[in-house]
Structures are given as structure tokens and as C-alpha cells.
Design goal:
Layout (H helix, E strand, L loop, with lengths): L1 H4 L15 E7 L14 E6 L8 E12 L4 E13 L5 E21 L2 E3 L8 E3 L2 E24 L2 E20 L1
Antiparallel strand pairs: 1-2, 3-4, 4-5, 5-8, 6-7, 8-9
Amino acid sequence: ILDQLNTTRSFNYLMFPADIIGQAAVYKTSQADLEEGGIGGTIDVKTRNPLDLDELELSGSLQAVHTELADQTDPQATALVSWKNSDETLGLLAAAIYQKREIRRDGVEVLGYFDADPGPAVVDAPTHIGSALFEQERIRTGGNVAVQWRPSDDLEFNLTGLYTKFDADNVNANF
């Protein structure tokens, strides 16, 4: 069944909004305290926790990005609210992100080769050369919530929920 699902151990980091990340550590060699990673190493991504932030933290941003080739200006918005009690034993956090991007890429594609010289030297020549147009609309939404309770220095409970969605509809044409 797993073969039919085409599962891999890879992760597309485009799915993970940077505003939600509190810390990222990259390990290129194995360690006893980490679950074994792939041939490229292990990336340990930690979301933000309310007990690591100020007592009341509010942050947000509104941005617009203009893509010249697509001739489009697209929005991006983020928001975060975090609270912890004065004893720093209980904290709550909520964060959200919305991002839209219109992407266009023009180029030249080679769609095959043939052996142009039947002699001993191999000389490959393109059979078809095309003018490529790639257009994509990306919409990324996401958020996380966290409840952190630390009743003592030796005991901590952390409940985190993460939602992320990345839609990327595209059209690729070649003439």
C-alpha cells in the first residue's frame, strides 16, 4: 500500500511559513538523541512557544510584493498573539499567515535530441526547441496554536497544533 501512495521522507519547506518558526537546527551527522535522518541530514524545526516570549506579545505585518515579469502585486499578512502569566507557568499562543504570489517564467526548452553524426563521435542535436511560458498562482495559508504549562522546573506540557496549506496551480505552455 505504501508504494501506491508514493510516500517519501522528504518535506517541502514551502509548506512551512517562516513566521511560525521559532528555531531551526540542521544536523549533518547522526547523533544518539535524534531520530535517524536521510542521507542529507536532519532538520529539527521548532515552532514558537509562549513561555519563550514576552508576557504579552502582539506582532503582525502587512506586505505587498510586486513581481515584474508577472506584472502583479500580491499581498502577504501575518499575525501573532502570545500571552503568559506572571509566574511563567502557563502560556497561550496563536499565529496565522496568508500569502499570495503570481509567478511567471519565460524560457527556452529542449524537447529531445538525436544523434547528428552517425560516425564514432556522438554529436547530439536538439530535435525540438520551444519557447516556454510558465505561470503559477501560489496561495499559502497557515497558522499554529500552542498551550504550554510548566508546573515546575522539572515538568512541562506543551500542546501545539499546526495547520498549513499550499495551493500552487500552474500552466506550462511551450510553442
